[in-house]
Design a protein that fits this description.
This protein is mostly beta strands. It contains two helices and 40 strands. The protein starts with a helix and ends in a 28-residue tail after the last helix.
């Protein structure tokens, strides 16, 4: 009887202890874990024997205990990565308790076969944590042998070829007075928040069959159209004679930005042709007083502007398609914006708009007005001209009858894109934009972005694409 009472007393104590432990658990769905890293990066894995071991520290920064209901590799037991979770080697663990203001370690390794025929450019996975209904994840990224890794480098004059892709990590800079040439077919991938800065000169020489691609390094299909995966291409004042021909630039914050403030150097110059710029958080093309000559370009689906030209400059766009059907948020800004100033925290930087010419272009989207102007009279001249263009405008607010600025303008008629929902801005067979262009402009650019002739049928079509009937 005495032993029975002792045993019962012991069970009671244990029960009370367990209950107290449970009572100290934080169950608030707003209580989240903290981590030592948001990405575990393995620079290059060369052999099949595996990688060095990386560590992740998981913190409970709350004043009560927290329980991780589940932690696992998203790729499961087929993942290239391996975990040791608080001392347990497994790809999956449950009910892990972290005491108040305490932490645990997770160790990560990866194995890649760099000579495998179907070896991916980037091996990626994630560690998923489920806590109080919250789902948090840590990216795991490893690169195989067959990639040029550019890690926070300042580069001199060199040429990149398509022998294997280039991966930019922690951004890069083309140095002053140096030239980076990128040949046809080259693929350039950027890790999160990385940017291509150009202080010298960038020459991109793609072809129709082998364009040069610039995009984020997340290659899963779900990331195909996700904007903001990398910073973009940033041309610094003093950068001159840049040329980009047959490139695809996608999924960045801003595709191409030219110019910077607080600089006495000349603003950048760029010749841009046969290029597609799409899916940007902010803008496809952004300029602060730069010089841009562009033709046969498609700039589409950006969170604020497809093109924004500020603080003056000199611009010439011909046979370009600006199409904005942004679907991630409620865009309230116009497709194309032109100003002669730049407002930085109520400090105005100004410059004369020498010229902003648009010939045989389409500027269209799903807003009432897709062109915006904002000029300060005291700055000086502001010269712009839309010649043989199809525009989406509110004619009650914009006077397009002024021939000084508008000539042969077509307004508010759907251009007839093949499928803007699929980001295909070629013209349909019944397109309103067919044969509406100026032949005088077209003869300067006789071939469209697909190398079809503009001058062999009834008339040149507006935009970057010439509709060729079977």
């Amino acid at each position: 009887m005495k032993k029975f009472i002792q045993y019962g007393f012991l069970l009671l104590i244990v029960s009370i202890f367990i209950r107290c432990e449970r009572d100290n658990l934080i169950t608030d769905p707003n209580a989240k874990l903290s981590f030592s890293h948001d990405t575990i990066l393995f620079d290059t894995v060369f052999t099949t024997i595996g990688s060095t071991t990386k560590q992740l520290k998981v913190y409970n920064r709350h004043n009560r205990d927290i329980e991780i209901a589940s932690v696992y590799l998203a790729g499961g037991d087929r993942s290239n990565f391996r975990l040791s979770i608080d001392g347990l080697s497994s790809y999956h663990a449950e009910n892990i308790l972290i005491r108040e203001s305490d932490s645990i370690f997770i160790f990560v390794e990866v194995t890649i076969d760099p000579v495998a025929q179907n070896n991916p450019l980037v091996v990626q996975d994630s560690i998923v944590f489920i806590t109080n209904g919250n789902v948090q994840d840590i990216d795991l990224v490893a690169w195989g042998q067959d990639v040029h890794l550019i890690n926070s480098e300042i580069i001199k004059t060199q040429t990149w070829t398509n022998d294997k892709p280039y991966l930019i990590y922690n951004s890069m800079l083309v140095d002053t007075l140096e030239t980076l040439t990128i040949n046809e077919g080259t693929r350039v991938y950027f890790h999160r928040n990385s940017t291509l800065y150009v202080s010298g000169t960038l020459i991109v020489s793609g072809t129709l069959e082998e364009p040069v691609t610039f995009q984020g390094d997340r290659l899963e299909s779900m990331y195909e159209y996700i904007p903001g995966q990398w910073g973009g291409m940033y041309f610094i004042n003093g950068s001159q004679n840049n040329k980009i021909d047959y490139a695809e630039i996608k999924n960045a914050v801003t595709g191409i930005h030219l110019g910077n403030l607080y600089s006495e150097d000349a603003p950048p110059t760029l010749e841009l042709s046969n290029t597609i710029i799409t899916h940007m958080n902010y803008a496809g093309v952004s300029s602060i007083g730069a010089t841009i000559s562009a033709y046969n370009c498609v700039v589409s689906d950006c969170g604020f502007y497809c093109t924004i030209l500020t603080a003056g400059g000199k611009y010439d766009f011909n046979h370009c398609t600006f199409a904005n059907y942004w679907g991630y948020s409620n865009r309230i800004t116009p497709n194309v914006m032109i100003t002669n100033f730049y407002n930085l925290n109520d400090t105005l930087f100004t410059g004369e708009l020498v010229n902003a010419g648009f010939g045989n272009c389409i500027i269209y989207g799903d807003k009432m007005t897709e062109i915006g102007f904002d000029f300060l009279e005291e700055v000086g001249d502001y010269n712009y001209k839309f010649d043989f263009c199809l525009l989406k405008v509110d004619i009650s607010k914009l006077d397009i009858s002024n021939s000084e600025y508008f000539n042969n303008i077509f307004v508010n008629t759907n251009p007839g894109f093949f499928s803007y929902n699929d980001f295909n801005f070629q013209l349909d067979t019944l397109s309103y934009a067919k044969d509406k262009g100026s032949i005088e402009i077209a003869v300067k650019f006789p071939l469209d972005i697909l190398q079809n002739s503009r001058i062999e049928d009834t008339g040149p079509d507006l935009g970057a694409y010439e509709r060729i009937e079977e």
